[in-house]
Amino acid sequence: MINILKTKTKTQKNRATEKPHDIKRALFLFVTLLLRTKTKMIVVLIMAALGSVMYTLIPWFMGIAIDNVAALISQFGIGNFTVGQVIEVITEPLLALTAASVITFIVLFIQERIMARVSEESGTYLREMITGKMTRLPLKFYDDVKVGEILSRNSVDIERIAEILVVGFNQFLSAVFNIIIGLGLMLWINPRLTVIVLVLMIVSSYFTVKISQKSQASFAENFETLGVFNSIAEEMFSGNMLIKVFNQQEESFEKIVEANEKQHEAHLKAMFMNYAIYPAIRFLNQIAFIVSAVYGGYLAIQGFLSVGVVQAYLQYVSQVSEPITETSFIINSFQASLASIERVYQIIDMDDAVPDTDQPANISKPKGRIVFKDVAFGYNDSHLIMNAVNFETKPKQMIAIVGPTGAGKTTLINLLMRFYEINSGTISFDGIDIRDMTRKKVRQMFGMVLQDTWLFEGTVADNIAYGNKLATREQIIKACKLAQCHQFIENMPDGYDTVISSEASIVSQGQQQLLTIARTALADPPVLILDEATSNIDTLTEVKIQEAIANLMKGRTSFVIAHRLSTIRNADLILVMDKGNIIETGNHEELMQHDGMYADLYKSQFLTHTDSQVRSPAFAH
Ligand SMILES: Nc1ncnc2c1ncn2[C@@H]1O[C@H](COP(=O)(O)OP(=O)(O)OP(=O)(O)O)[C@@H](O)[C@H]1O
C-alpha cells in the first residue's frame, strides 16, 4: 500500500505541498464530513483495529512454530526426528497463522470497501453542495472569480478529498493501530532494545521527512517549469500568425529554448531525487532493523530470547517503522486534502444572494412602465459608480441608452433585471418595487437580444422554444417569420428539426442573431433589451436583423443600448450616461438643442459614419 501512496505523492508533488490556512477549521470540516457516515466510520475503526491485531498475531504464531521446531532440534538433535513430528509441532501455530492471515484479508477488504463507499458518498455530497450553491450565489461572486477555474479547481479538490479518504485515511488508520500494537508487543518482549530502536526510528523518520520535503520542492519545480514551457508553447502555436506578422519568430524561439532548458534542469534534479534520495531513505529506515537483528541475535545466542521471538520482534520492527515513514507521506497528502476541503467549504459557506420575498407581488398584465428613483449602486460597497439615477418610462416606449464605453449602460440593465442589488433607491415595474417580486418573475418580464448569441446542442426548434417550451410548431414558425429566419430554416437539411451543435458551425453569425430574435419573439416578453449588434455581419443580413428587431419591438417597451446614434433618432427617451450616472435625458431633438454630450457624440459619429442611411430606419416604429 505504501508504494501506491508514494507514487502518487511523487507524481503530485506540487499539489502535496499545499497546506490549509486554518488547520483547526479544516480538520473540523474533515471530521464533520466523516461524521455524515458515522455508522460506516465506526465499522471502519473496528475493522482497522481488528486487522492490526490479526496482522500482529501472524509473526507471533510464526515464532511459536520456529520455537517448536527449535525445541525438537535441541531435544533430538538435527536429523533425529521424523517429518511427522515436525508436522505435529507446527500444525497448530501454522493453522492459527493461516486463520489470522485470512481474517486480516477479510477485515482489510471490508474496511476498504466501506471507505470506498464513504469516499464516493462524500464526493457526491460535496459536488451536490457546490452545484446547488452555484445557483444560489449572487452574481457578484461571478465577477470576482473565473467560474471555469472555480469549477475545475473544485472538481480537482473533491477528487483529492475522495482519494485521501479511500487510500490515505485507510492507510493512516491501519498505520496508527499497527504502530500501537506492534510497539506494545516490542516493549513487552524487550523494553531496552525497543527504546533504542524507537529512538533510531524517530531519527531516521525525521531525516526521511526532511529529505522528502526537499524532493517535493524539486518535483514541484519540475511541474512548474513544465507548465511554463507548455503555456509558452501554446502561446506560440495559437499566436503563430501574429508572431510572423510582427517578425518575432527568433524572440519566440529563444523564449521557448530558455523555458525548455529550465525544464530540463528541473527534471534532472527531480530525477536525481527520485533515483538517489529514495534509496537513501530506504537505507535510513533499515538501520533500526539492522540494530535489532544484531542485538536480537546476540540475545538469542545468550539464551535471553528464543529464535522465534527474535524473528517476531524483527517483523514488529518493520511493522512499526514502515507505518512511521508511511505516516509522514500520508500527513503530507492529508494536509493537501485539508487545503482542498477548506477551499470547497469556502464556496459552500459563502452568503447566498438575498432571498426572494416570501409574499411576492404578481403583475398579471405587465405593461412595461419602469421607474428608477434615486438609484445608487456600486459593484463593491466601498465604491459607488451610480449615485442618484432617476428616470421614468411609459409603456411601449423606446428608450435608448447612450454614452461612452464604461459609462454604465450595461450596469443600468443589470440593475433593471435585478442581477445585482442596488445600494439605495427603488426600481419599480408597473408601480411595484422589483424587490417585491421574485427574481424569476422580474426576469420573465424581459427579453434580451444581445450581441453574443447563444445556441445549444439541439434542433433549431428546440433552440427557439428555449424560453417557451410549450410552444407549438405553428407558434415557432410564426416567431421565425417575424424574425426573418423562417426561409433559411426551411432551407436547412431537416428544416426546424435540423440539429445544430453548440458551436453552431452550420449557422452563420447573422443567422444566429436571427434565431435568438425568434427565440425572444416566441417568449413574448413585455419589455425588450437590445444590445445593438456591431459585429461584422454583411449588410444584407444586418438589414434583415434590424427589420426583425423592429418587428419585435412593436407594442413593447424597449431599451436599446445604442452604439450608433443614427439608429436611435426615433427613440422616445434617450438616457445619456457618463461615469455611471445619467447626465442628460430627452428625445433626439431636445438633446441636440441642449447641445451637450449627446450632441457632441452625435455630431462626431454622424461625421464618421457614412452608412447611417442604411441603418437609420431599423429601430423606427
Ligand atoms: N462586474 C463588474 N464588477 C466591477 N466593476 C464593473 C463590473 N462591470 C462593470 N464594471 C465597471 O462599471 C463601470 C460601468 O461599466 P458598464 O459595463 O456598465 O459600462 P458600459 O457603458 O456598458 O460600457 P461598454 O459600452 O464598454 O459596454 C465601468 O467602470 C466598469 O469598469
UniProtKB/TrEMBL annotation:
Show the GO MF annotations.
Answer: ABC-type oligopeptide transporter activity; ATP binding; ATP hydrolysis activity
The protein's superkingdom reads Bacteria
In this chain the ABC transporter domain maps to 370-604
Tell me which UniProt keywords the record has, alphabetically: ATP-binding, Membrane, Nucleotide-binding, Transmembrane, Transmembrane helix, Transport
The record, for Gene3D superfamilies, names: ABC transporter type 1, transmembrane domain (1.20.1560.10), P-loop containing nucleotide triphosphate hydrolases (3.40.50.300)
Residue span(s) of domain ABC transmembrane type-1:
42-336
Main location per the UniProt record: membrane
| GO-annotated cellular components | plasma membrane
Task: Report TM segments.
Answer: 42-66, 86-110, 161-187, 193-209, 287-314
Q: Which SUPFAM superfamilies match?
A: ABC transporter transmembrane region, P-loop containing nucleoside triphosphate hydrolases
Which Pfam families does the annotation name? ABC_membrane, ABC_tran
The subcellular localization recorded is: Cell membrane
Task: Say yes or no: keyword RNA-binding present.
Answer: no
Lipid bilayer topology:
Multi-pass membrane protein
Per the record's keyword annotation, is tRNA-binding included, yes or no?
Answer: no
Family annotation (PANTHER family): ATP-BINDING CASSETTE SUB-FAMILY B MEMBER 10, MITOCHONDRIAL (PTHR43394:SF1), ATP-DEPENDENT PERMEASE MDL1, MITOCHONDRIAL (PTHR43394)
Would you tell me the protein name for this molecule? ABC transporter
Q: Which organism is it from?
A: Vagococcus acidifermentans
